[in-house]
Design brief:
The protein has 57 residues and is mainly α. Helix content is 88%, strand content 0%. The radius of gyration is 13 Å and the shape is elongated.
Length: 57
């Protein structure tokens, strides 16, 4: 893999985690909702998965 691709994947993973955390915080601030919590957790999981796969290579 090239260095640019690795940096892009890293940035994408971090952004996905941050978006997931923001979704969780906004959902909690708005009084809750199962869809918001689910999407937040999925985004966090996506980001963690991308970073995990990047480290394995």
């Amino acid at each position: 893999m090239t260095g640019v691709y690795q940096r892009f994947v890293f940035v994408f993973g971090v952004v996905a985690i941050l978006l997931g955390i923001a979704l969780l915080v906004e959902t909690a601030a708005a009084g809750g909702g199962s869809v918001g919590y689910l999407l937040g957790l999925l985004f966090v999981g996506l980001g963690i998965g991308r970073l995990y796969l990047l480290r394995r290579r």
